[in-house]
Amino acid sequence: MAGGVSRGPYPGIYTGGQTPGAPTNLKGPTGGGTGVEGTYTPDDVRQSNSPTGYEWNPIDAGYQRTPTSTGTRGGQEVSAFMNAAGFGGLAGGLTGALGGLQGAGGGAAAFGGGSSQMQPNFASGPISAVGHIGMPDQTGAENATFASAKDHVGQNSKAALSALNDAMAGQGMLGSGAQVQGSRDIIQSGMGELGDVRRQQAVTHAGNALDVAKMGYQGDIAQRGQNIQAQEANARLAQEANQLAFQRQQAGTNQQLQLMSLALSGLKGLY
Amino acid sequence: MAFTLLQVGRTLKSVNTDGVLSSALTLPSGVALADNLIPRFARFKRYAILVNTPTKPLSIDSEGVVRLLTPDAPTVAVVLTAGAAGSLTGVYLALQTYRYVDSSNNIIAESAYGPAMSAAFSITNKKLHAAFTAAPTGQISEIYRTTTNGATYFPWASVAAGTALVENDNSDDSLGTVEGASLGTAPDLTLIAAWQGRLWGVDRTAIDDLRYTESGTMYGWYALNTIPIGKIGDDEAGVTALIARRNYLGVTRKNQFLQISGTSRTNFTQTNVSDQCGCDSQESVVVFRDTAYFLWHDGVYTWGDEGLKCISNGQVRSWFTSDDTFNRAMFWRAFATINQTTLRYRLFLASAGSSTIDSWIEYDLNTGKWWGPHSTTAFSPSSAVSVYGANQKFYPMIGSTEQYLSLDQETREDWTAPIAFTATSKAHTAGNPSSTKYFGELTVLTEAQERGTLTITPTVGELDDSPQAPFSLDLTQERGRLGRLGVGRTATLTFENAEHEQDVVIYGYEVAPVTEIGNR
After folding, report:
1. In B, which residues are within 8 Å of A190 by CB distance?
2. Nearest-angstrom CA–CA distance, B502 and B510
3. Second label for B447, Cα 20 to 30 Å away, from A73, B15, B266, B341?
4. Who among A143, A155, A157 is closest to B90 (CB)?
5. CB B194 within 8 A of CB B244
6. Residues B112-156: pLDDT tens digits?
7. What one-character DSSP code corresponds to residue A123?
């Protein structure tokens, strides 16, 4: 018998080809496969009336979120939280990241409220990384500091040269080699002081850059750790979801068997 | 080559070591020399400084190039704008000066700073563009600027004459290390002296203030370099003379003598040497072997290690304390020099009744004797000059209103004119001024000359009696026996000679017998 494959091992609902000898005059659930219109169970009815994003769980006898809608809602909630916390730039990424987490490693994305069980719906692709914080521009402050230092050095050098000239003049030694050497020493001293300022600035700048790089590196490590944790969590959740799904499947199978048994026993009675 | 500077009329000339007079030196534009004032000179390093007669103080270098002592400062502030794209970011101020520089870019003189900008200028990632008034020919512009948000000006760029802009993005690191020097324009000076590696002077209007330059410069007349000389406002003459003597600078007023000591603005000390002595004429000041000689209203003084001392208080005090010999009202125009060969201080004065300098006296530094007064009919002295000769020796010369320099010589003539010689003895009284005496025969002993006649005029009787008939002594003889002098209370002899190129050496004379007649 032709027909699509139904989703559920719901009792009494089979499509053609799955069970030899099974009646084929039964219509599948809403939106399901082909077949002859037949008899619907109450679960069928409930399932067909599921709200958007929800499905009927006959075991729990209740509606639960579908895995896809759960992940989407979870991402939206996280996004709203981050926007409120001022991390709006990341919120949009998180929504996509959560979607990615859903698909990574087969795990489940356990976010948001609603039912505790969900069917994982993992998106493909790696977890997006958080960008590094750049080092602040200190050029203005450095230039201002240097200018102040140069002013001091300039004034002091002028005063020193003037004092040297006065002393040399008092001894009649203006223009002498002693004055030349003294002037040279004063100027070199001033240049040395300014060089020290620049050198210290360079050292500080390099230190700041190193600190920022370390922060970035540490952030990368933390982020990587968090990613791994998230991946592990996803895997764990996926595993749990798989187990749950298996259990559900088992329960459904058992229920079908029971129903079959009942049906067969009933048929036995007929025949 | 060394030379001596002279002001001749309204021109400035030089005399080289061969005695050759130059043509008039070219003065800076807009500068003229007054011919009714006394030029005052000083020497600073390899420059001569001239003040008082020029419109603005001048410097003259060894090549005879005349420049302003301090160039005129810029009159317009620098204008900063943003130039092309560059790497400079910050807030800046700029200043401008003008400089004279030599061929090696050494600073000869620098003007005061131009006006400051009214507000700082800010640029971001641009080149800094400065517009200013270009330097005149023969000068350059020096532009200074601050570091960003700074208040200290550093040398930024040197710009050739005729160029009125500079644009670059040189960083603050590339500016000069030393703040711009303290500068200022030289005032209109009347007095000038070089001492302790600076120039010192007195402004024509601020007559009680002593101004000086920054150490080692002749152009940095910084405004704070001022010492008020007490007693401020005491008279209309103010500071009358500057005397640089070793570790002290003497500063005189009409009736006060102070000395400045120290090496910098922070330790210059003013000490009062005397409240009862001053100097009447800057030109009478001569410093020789750490002793200064100068004229005050009652005589000639020295200032040395022993302090102040009057050297004319002996026989010649009356020259300075009466108007019989010299016109004391003309002491302020006196001038002097020292002959380093004969070691004589020669002081030129106006004779009694004269309003021009027409005579001179001499003080022998070795013997302490005074000679003169001397005069000449050949010329009218106007200045005393020491000219540097080809043998690297100084020759004392006399400048004249006839625009000639006269040099001392052995030959006894002035410009071919004879030198008149007159010597008068004291009034002989033989120890008894009130009694009448008989003065006998006169005998005179002289050095024998090749020729010549000495005229001896006796005056016997009372002090105010008229002279008698003169005797004539043949100077070819060593001894001349002349006639009897006559009868009277006193006897005075006057020796005269006005022959051309005639030497006269009188060893002595004798009057014998001298017989006391009695009191009448």
Report:
1. 177-178
2. 23
3. B341
4. A143
5. yes
6. 999 999 999 999 999 999 999 999 999 999 999 999 999 999 999
7. P
